[in-house]
Write a structure and sequence with these properties.
Blueprint: H1 10-21, H2 25-30, H3 32-54, E1 65-66, E2 86-91, E3 104-112, E4 115-123
Antiparallel strand pairs: 1-2, 2-3, 3-4
Helix pairs in contact: 1-3
Length: 129
């Protein structure tokens, strides 16, 4: 199902700001509906719209991956359970098949209280690259 991106709602950005101040499971659980409707759904629509536009000039574009909002706390001294921004990546070409890490190239987007951040680049380049 494709959703049209119409912008990030103020309520969604306010939720992420509130999450910075009250980064607890209790706060998140009490506001899970706001997160899903005002943050997660609009962000997914943004990523899908951006990927669709990129496919015009990058035909081998891979499927977008939206990163989870839960933080990996295993090795962190900071035990706050949630990220306070949403991020996603879109690979610009498939990884090489067979052995080795392959080459990951692609695009990245992050939206949060600090604003919008976009990037593109190359990860795990081989010697020729």
């Amino acid at each position: 199902m494709t959703t049209t991106f119409v912008g990030m709602p103020d309520e969604g950005l306010a939720f992420l700001e509130d999450l910075e101040e009250r980064n607890t499971k209790e706060f998140f659980d009490a506001n899970k509906g706001v997160f899903r409707e005002q943050v997660q759904a609009p962000f997914a629509a943004l990523v899908e719209a951006a990927a669709a536009r990129l496919r015009r000039s990058v035909p081998d574009l891979g499927p977008p991956k939206i990163f989870r909002i839960h933080r990996d706390l295993r090795f962190s001294k900071d035990k706050t359970p949630y990220k306070t921004s949403m991020s996603a990546s879109v690979p610009s070409r498939p990884r090489e098949e067979g052995g080795g890490p392959g080459i990951d190239t692609g695009f990245y987007v992050n939206v949060g209280p600090a604003g919008l951040y976009t990037a593109s680049g190359l990860y795990h380049p081989g010697r020729p690259e």
